[in-house]
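To whoever picks this up:

The parser on our side crashed when reading a file containing two proteins. I've narrowed it down to the boundary between the first structure block and the second sequence. Both blocks are reproduced below exactly, byte for byte. First block:
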Amino acid sequence: MAVRHHIKVLVVDDDPQVCKTVGKILQENNYQVQTYTQPRQALQAVRKTPFDIALIDIKMPDVNGVELVEKIRGEDDRVAALVMTAFPDVQSAAETMRLGARDYITKPFSAEQLLAAIERIAQELGLIYTNEHELNRLIGQRIRQERLKQSLTLRQLSERSELTTSQLSQVELGKNAASVWALARISGALGKQLCELIGGL
């Protein structure tokens, strides 16, 4: 199961209902969220909290979204900005991209569209990972599938990898975290690069 609870998202929109709805959707999907209807308050929050992603409305009074993207990235250039707009405007979209926004999403958007956009950015930033127990299970499953595909018994894989059948069995069942050294031995014994064996998990 992918872990997201460590990902901090800043939401800035002058419409309180948008902040409430977006905040609820993200919280229900395990993101840490802070919402602001005032751009200046959001900027102060960025000075105190290291956010990962900022979801910013383009059309706001006082400070518009383009300016806010620039100011936020001026405070912390690691923040990935995702711009919301009810009026798709090629010029403003291009300007926010030039200033460092990752993408933009057009209002009204569904919860699925919002989550897909946030997830895409989080994946690009390497922020989403699998919890350790689940990762061990997936690695074990991948090794077992590859071994069976090659019609190898545990004993044969043991002889090739110089690991005991007991060690291999524990790894395949996901009960023990295999060391990088052990995974390298197993992948070599299966005729695979380690990155091929565990890629995409």
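<<boundary where parser fails>>
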Amino acid sequence: MIPIVKKQAGLSIISLLIASSIGVFLIGGAGKVYVDSKSTFTARSAITAATESTRFAIQDLRRTLFMAGRNISESSDGPSAYAAADNGARTFPAVDDPDGIIDADTNGSSVIAIRYAGGPAPCGQAGTISATRTVRFYRDDNANLICQVVETDFAQPLVSGIVAMRALYGVDTDADDIANQYLTATEVEAANRWLNIVSIRIGIITSSGDGAELPPRYRPAAAEELDLLGMTFTAPDTSHFYKSASTTISLRNLHSSVQRQ
């Protein structure tokens, strides 16, 4: 018998081309999945950064502003205190004063200021206070929320990414401890209503900040317009995520409604 020798056949050019095409297709698909996943992760990181800045800002504002009026005597905080120059001891400092309340400062944001005379030390400091302290919150040129204690010349940044802040003051017009209208500080001053304030409503716009930009595919076509307590705020760019939020803080440590008649 004559042995039959089987010859091995190599890959044809067509088979090689088909295999290469399939490989390129699979690699391209995997690459697209990776790029899409990375873009989604980056976008979520930007949203999370703005959300966390919002949460921390509201938390810090609420913790301190809730103390407004605590341990301040009615003699220091009565009608005569608001009919004259700021005595340095009343709950609400003077309006448009370097150490007081400002509706809109040079960067367009409100400056919020209150006083209290007993309780936890403000601005993240340890311990308690037993003397009147003027605590101010404002936004600096680097978009940081600054907490300042006027009497001790202490100031420190609390939260970054704050691009705008606005405050309105809740006026109780029928002595039931519930705000019936919300006014700017200038409007409250003009109407001589500081003794009728029962709450503060704060609106803030936060940004995802440096290092947390939106991927190009997630950027809006035009700068977004956000609500800032009834005002329209236009985002300065489309490369970051911007978030609008507001909170209302009841001032339960003020004197009784008898004083606010």
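After patching the parser it read the second block fine. DSSP finds four helices and twelve strands in the chain. Residues 256-261 have pLDDT under 50 and may be disordered.
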